[in-house]
Amino acid sequence: MTRTVSGAESTAARLRSSIADGGFMPGTQLSEERLSDQLGVSRNTLREAFRLLARDRLVEHVFNRGVFVRRLSAADVTDLYAARRVLEEAGIRACTPDSPALAAASTAVADARVAAAAHDWRAVGTADIRFHAELVRAVPSARLHGLMDALLAEMRLAFLTTDDPGAFHGEFVERNEAIVAALRSGEQDRASALLADYLDDAERTLRAAAAATA
User: Fold this and answer.
1) Which pTM does this prediction carry?
2) Each residue's pLDDT tens digit in the chain (214 positions)?
3) CB-hemisphere CA count at 13 Å for 204?
4) Helices and strands of the chain, counted as H and E runs
5) CA 212, 24, 72, 198 torsion: positive or negative?
6) Is 14 exposed, middle or buried (0-12, 13-18, 19+ CB in 10 A)?
7) Among candidates 196, 181, 158, 161, which has minimal Cα distance to 109?
8) Cβ neighbours, 10 Å, residue 27
């Protein structure tokens, strides 16, 4: 039986997409009046959508001020990467050379390379997120998949704080490709080491960006 998507869920999805695409940068106030008119929804629907986004840690309610897109702190970045290490290491260990998850991750890397050649760094970021999400899908657990998707949605907020998205995302296309190559060869230990270095470097860069915008 197909579940009916509520107006609030649909509105939250639209706002989530806008935040991910950089339409609303971290720290931006979300005007209830303007968005209600712009999205063609009631204020009650919009408030429920805000509640859903707050649950996902994408927005926050500031007392007597309103709703704002969250600005991640350096501590938030550290917490996100701690969680990612656990989930993605599990994905690496579950990946086999013929795993459908690995095939999907490989496709994400190919898409990132095409986007990087076109200097479309937003698309590169999207493909990078797909790559990491697909790795975790090697683990047969819908709950873990949902948790990873939520973490990566929040990661978008961190990506938006980088001064040079081209330099940040471009570097990791090759590194994702190396992880795929190791997994295709059955070298899980090598893939794990490559992933650990990748996550350490990305965390360091994003922690510095978060601290600079605090």
Assistant:
1) 0.86
2) 444 558 899 999 899 888 887 788 899 999 999 999 999 999 999 999 999 999 999 999 999 899 999 999 999 999 999 999 999 999 999 999 999 999 999 999 999 999 999 988 888 888 999 999 999 999 999 999 999 998 988 988 888 887 777 777 778 899 999 999 999 999 999 999 999 999 999 999 999 988 887 6
3) 6
4) 9, 3
5) negative
6) middle
7) 181
8) 13
Residue in this structure with the two tokens 């007392």, named with its chain if needed = 63
How do strand 29-30 and strand 59-62 relate by DSSP bridges?
A: unpaired
Query: 61 by DSSP, 3-state: which?
Result: strand
Cα–Cα dist 124/173, whole Å: 8
Say if residues 156 and 19 touch (Cβ distance below 8 Å).
yes
List Cβ neighbours of 139 (8 Å cut-off, separation of 6 or more).
87, 90, 91, 94, 145
d(CA 126, CA 155): 11
Nearest to 135, CA basis, from 157, 103, 110: 103
Phi, psi of 67 (to 5 degrees): -105, 135
